[in-house]
Design goal:
It contains four helices and no strands. It is mostly helical. It folds into two domains: 49 residues; 46 residues, no CATH class. Helix 1 crosses helix 2 and helix 2 packs across helix 4. The longest helix is centred in the N-terminal third of the chain and has 44 residues.
């Protein structure tokens, strides 16, 4: 069996490095997505179940202020209609059920 040259070994190591970097990137994107999902779940839970009405009102106010400028796509905006409606109802003193 022929022994690999240094150039061949370097090429194999570079290919392995590329594969590992791609795997790391995929793992980091998955973790980022998971963090966003969990953070969003927490925010929605607090809006729906918080016993601290002042906190819920302030959170709703902040979302109503920030979301319209943050969301670009119409489909994304539609996903948050209920949150924005709930925030408006909370501000008005009523409560959206």
């Amino acid at each position: 069996m022929a022994r690999k040259t240094i150039v061949q070994r370097i090429a194999e190591l570079e290919a392995r490095k590329k594969t590992l970097k791609a795997r790391l990137g995929k793992q980091e994107r998955a973790q980022d997505t998971r963090r966003k999902v969990l953070l969003g779940a927490l925010v929605l839970h607090r809006l729906e179940h918080s016993r601290f009405s002042d906190f819920t009102r302030r959170l709703g106010d902040w979302l109503r202020k920030e979301l319209p400028g943050f969301l670009v796509r119409d489909g994304d905006k539609a996903l948050f209609d209920d949150v924005l409606d709930q925030a408006e109802a909370t501000e008005g003193g009523g409560r959206a059920e």
